[in-house]
Queue: 2 jobs
Job 1
Amino acid sequence: MNIACLSAALAALVTLAPLSKAAPVAAAQSEATWIAQHRTTGRASLRALELHPAGGAVVALTWGTTVGSTEDVDDIEVRWISEDGDWLWRALPPTLPGMFLDLAVDGAGNVAVATEALGQVWISCLDTTGSLRWTVEAPSVAAGASFRLRALGFAAAGEVLVTGIQDAFNTPPFDGRASVLALDLTTGQTQWRVDRPAIYDAIATIAGGEAFVVYTGFPGLLLDRIGGGGQLVYSAPVPNATRILQGDGIAADGAGRAALSLRSSFYTTGPNVLTFDANGGLAWSNTLQLDFGGTVTFTTSGDVVVCDRAYRRDVWRMDGVGAVLWQRSAPSNVNIYGYGPLAATPSDGVVLASADTLSSQNAGVGLVQAIDAAGTTSWVETLPGLAWDSSRFTSLAVDSRGNVWAGLSRLDGSGQPFEGAAAKIVAGGDPSTAYCAPSVANSTGASGALRAAGSVVAAHDNVTLLMGSLPEGAPVLVLNSRAAGSVPGAGGSQGTLCLGGAIGRYVGVGQVRRANAAGLAWLQLELSNTPTPTGARAVLAGETWNFQAWHRDANPGPTSNFTNAISVLFQ
């Protein structure tokens, strides 16, 4: 689109009521580009977050009333959040008042949700639009014991996988079971189930469409790998340990390997970090001080990282034979309680979520830390006032672009959750150079600001534009061009269009943004699908692209304005 046509198009968009003022955006090494918050009249909490295959994440929110010190809830809501923080759909699985347990998303965008009501576990399945397919009970087969969920996921053949423990140790004839069920995706009917004799508790994970379950069987502590059709791939003894405790961790790499991190206790008399190969053989073991348990994950290169859940605040990385490559403690300038969720990054590092309790227990600062493969802290991002205990960071995930998604809850003065939040963090600095700055002041009295966060490498396809100091509620249209320009008053605007030549407009679904109450807006660019007047095309290495945002305003009558412009030389 040429400048004359663009000016006419922008002039036709100017209709707006008076708007309020907002604050500018500040730059950072890593960027929490947005925080989507959810608050109700009852206790609100974000309990789980899982990445969606089409981008964004699916979250489970709960709210209700406090019952003693329990986490009983009245309502459970599932939402799909876009990469720009928008709610794409929402669903309320039909459950009795009860407790949220787990959430899983398959490769097509189907969602499984597990809840507990009146002592029973219920599994609900939502299709790709968020509509309910079915709800069924996960029945117990152990006399005198209810089914307790331990992991939820999807099998390689598409079934919903449910793992749990039925502890009947105190009920003769001691017929507890560690169980794996496969439920048909369309009907919810049980396709197969595996029930292994067990006592005490269990931990489980699902990876690569298979279930991995650790439980006290006969004899001793066992690790089972359950494959397609309920096939028992292996049942491996876990040496030097007799039972599972709260805080123990398990991970699988999707290729059959599993790793365990067990609490230091009299139930574990030897090495407490162990890995098993795809055939169930003990690959290596090591001993770490994990008084309150640890979270464990595999890195992309196959190393194992373990972080301490409480007090010690340590992180270890071990290689393929169990040798410690490095041990790191929490950053010295923060005072965290312990680490919570842990996730691997595409660059062979890890990200960890914790909580900063420097000020006071209930006024802590949520903390996300990235550590690279060599053990160097790449960045630390704080999310002020949104968490004080690492257990309140319910989820952490890294998407295909390398962006970090965190699910967490904010607590009130009594330590009860009252607000759930999801945050997207873009690693890296600002790859852009600003020009035409400052822009002409808008009705807030400030100049609309534009900058970028992400990677300068075109192949990474990871640039987010961040706009600030905008009028609250103002629609925002992002523009691009290969050339700079200067057209004061373009389209009757009070600002200056700083782009020249052919100008592309981001007018696709969800791309026209709206400034929030803080005057902020953002847009995740799809560099492989960049709009131009002659059609979409990919951004290539060596090209320079310019960006600018136009927005409506009321200053004092209906008008419009522009932010500053930026240029990015892609590599």
Job 2
Amino acid sequence: MRPAADRMRGIGCAALVLLLACGGGADGAAAGGALAPPIDAGSAPGIADAGTTTPMTDAGPPTADAGPPTADAGTDAGTAGPDAGAPTTDAGPPTPDAGTPGPDAGLPGQDAGTDAGTPPVPAADAGSPQDPPPDPCGGVTAAGACSSPATLTYCSTPVDAGAPSLRTITCAAGESCVAQDGRAACVLQPGACRDGMSRCQASLLQTCAGAAWTTASTCPGGCAETALGASCLPVTGGTELYSGRLLVEALLPQPDRRDWSAVPVQVPGRGFHVASGYPDPKATDGSYVLMDATSTAVTPADAGKFTVKVRSASERTAEDRIFFSAVQDDGAGGMLSALLDPQLIGTAPFDPNQAKSARLWSWSARVNDVPLGQLLVRQANGSGAAYIWDALAAGRRRAESLSGRPGLRLAAWWASGTAWTCGACMFAEPVVALGARFDTQIALPGNPGDGGEWAISVVDHELGHWVMQSFGTSPREGGTHYAGTPTFPGQAWSEGWATFFSSDVRADPVYVDKQSGTMFWIDLGIRRYAYGPWSRPTPTGGLLQNMDENEVAATLWSLSQAGAQPVPLYRALASPHMNTPPYGRGYTRHTWTVTGPGQFTNVQDTQQPAPMLADELDALVCGGMSPAAVDATVQPATFYPYPSAAPLCP
């Protein structure tokens, strides 16, 4: 079953309609425009081939682009590397976290008063009260609870974005609140559906209205389901196979990491939903008839390649098209992940209600305009969004492969010109968008001048928070944090894991970002910021001492490189040891107020168990990792005093 727009005939994807003919399109409600693409300055994203672009405009047919691609369509095909992550080069080191505050984010020269010899800030505050502060969530955890058969209550702690708060959601018509796999969620009742969904029942196309399935039509040519909806297939005379490769323009860091390069490279577009279609002659709303659907390949040798059926040359018209969408099918009739445009300009707080105006990032090209099969998404046509999607999809594949099970459904938000008050952040907030329910959300910045779409380090960092939410347990210590400043063990663990994941999925210890017009980087391999080394833990500070979040990231990176085997780290994250409170090392979640780098006031111990780095190290050693390998990384006599000879095993 898949969400679909009820006014689509045979294509089940309003994105295709609005890309071609509907201009600004409808809002993100399930009916009549649920999958609308973003429209930028009057034109929707287009795709180029061999020097010709086909941007869609409100005014009519595509226009030509006078210039050829800046790089050979095949030269950078290998840039993306293996399926382990987004395209990378040897441009170098990683950067701090996207959630770090703007001007004080630990940019070069802003050491926040620490250096390699300065002891970490103690985790406790002498003025902290003995009694724990009131729990703002009243004992409800992030896993949620069903406060009634139709009401979901959960504790929301937006990563990088503030204190926990209790949230309540009323399940939609046809849904019930159910506890499953350790989490509470609104799920569809047996036989029910969400308005706007569609499905195939043999040769019947069924749509959902009023939470009930109704038969919309009989499909003489058969019925097909895609990530964008169920559709009747055409009864057509002649077809042929069209094989191509999707390429995406991207800007990489300059070799000196002072800015993004001025000349784009071309990288394969992996994991995009692909659909072919032609204008529905019976429709008056610009609908298309679906011919075929697939996804672009993700394996290194074939990355970006696809093959779909199209109408034969004798039957094809100038408007027969191929569509590419930033959405992943879950293989069971729903959306697993999607990249959405919130249709906001300027800086705004993250608001789940923005789903009402959501549009799916999509691109299209005329079949007759791309006979060679090399399709290029240019910068002017939204290649930044395509580059982000490639990274999100690759990161998800990596995490699920190493964790051994599916992750939570994810809606990610990005648009050029849209900035979030949280910077970049992951929210464990369920939302219904495009007629589909997602479990988690990621907000990515589109700040003018910073080129956040090229900061794949940041994209993968936020996805690292999703990994912890999907497969582990968050310590729920979110909020402001500064690069180069030790922070509390829970926050250091959460942020450190996210940065480690970013490096792991990209197979690169260097993290690069640009904030407020300034480029900066972090190298986990040599434990160094662009402006110098960070503060290391001390052997007298204990296991619960405050730490630089990137010390945690560097520790995990070093362990993952021992034998080039990161799998144990993911299995440890998902183990009962890291997901069953109370946790062995006894850390409890703290709350505090940040008044500047390293300046913590109003520190309070909630006495709520929270996992941290030492618990992960216990899970690793108890799971069979060599104590010597751990010692070589943490150097207990000199830096972090983890007792590898005495792990706390269940």
